[in-house]
UniProtKB/TrEMBL annotation:
Family annotation (InterPro entries): Glutathione-S-Trfase_C_sf, Glutathione_S-Trfase_N, GST_Omega/HSP26, Thioredoxin-like_sf
Domain GST N-terminal: 1-83
Name listed for the protein in its UniProt record: Glutathione S-transferase
Gene Ontology CC entries for this record: cytoplasm
CDD domains: GST_C_6, GST_N_3
Top-level taxon of the source organism: Bacteria
High-level lineage: Bacteria, Pseudomonadati, Pseudomonadota, Alphaproteobacteria, Hyphomicrobiales
Length: 218
């Protein structure tokens, strides 16, 4: 199988964690594919995914799968469904929706901040949604601890990891110490250590590292 891949993408990271957790990492050839807003999509990627997005997985028979939710479910089913067992399936799907939505909001916020003149209304809307999402995750710590590690946890880890990657000065651990302890425990898993986001290209645009401060978000 071939995976259109980037070490920066939180959605690619979801797929990579699933590959590690299910023992399939050696079955995939990762192809570095650059996707950037405002730049022409990769011609090679467009052949496999007309939306021009990553991750995109190309199966051995030529079938192309996208987006991360479809790919992760396919890979988990291929390995026996351990990451979304039937009795907990909808919990994992719900947490995945929350994690993916939070990730998308973080990406939108960073994109807006890169503009010459960011739209203040949009920025504040994104900031409010991010704060509310963290509060919602924090409220479910007991259940997240109870349910065995699976796709929902992976999506939430990738969302929080994206915050650390692009908004490293957010101080979210001070605002949510219980969640910080939970996250620190998961961060020791081999699959999560192996997939930490990295910037493998030139830095550019506005530095958003210190933009969010969770000790000041109501």
């Amino acid at each position: 199988m071939k995976l259109h891949w980037s070490p920066r993408s939180p959605f690619v990271r979801k797929v990579m964690i699933v590959l590690h957790e299910t023992g399939q990492i050696g079955h995939v050839d990762c192809v570095r594919t650059v996707v950037a807003a405002g730049s022409p999509p990769s011609p090679d990627l467009l052949i496999d995914n007309p939306l021009g997005k990553i991750p995109t997985l190309v199966l051995d028979d030529g079938t192309c799968l996208f987006d991360s939710r479809v790919i992760c479910e396919f890979l988990d089913a291929r390995a026996g469904g351990r990451l979304m067992p039937g009795h907990e399936r909808f919990k994992h799907l719900r947490w995945q929706a929350l994690g993916d939505g939070l990730t998308e909001t973080l990406l939108l916020l960073r994109g807006e901040l890169q503009r010459d003149a960011a739209h203040i209304g949009l920025v504040e809307s994104y900031r409010s949604k991010i704060g509310a999402s963290f509060a919602a995750i924090n409220a479910e710590m007991a259940e997240l601890d109870r349910v065995p590690f699976g796709l929902g946890h992976i999506a939430l880890v990738c969302a929080i990891g994206q915050l650390d990657f692009r908004f490293g000065g957010s101080r979210w651990r001070e605002a949510f110490p219980r969640m910080a302890s939970w996250f620190a425990g998961l961060a020791e898993r081999a699959s999560i250590v192996a997939t930490v986001a990295k910037d493998d290209g030139p830095q550019g645009g506005t530095d958003t590292t210190a933009f969010l401060d969770f000790t000041k978000i109501s």
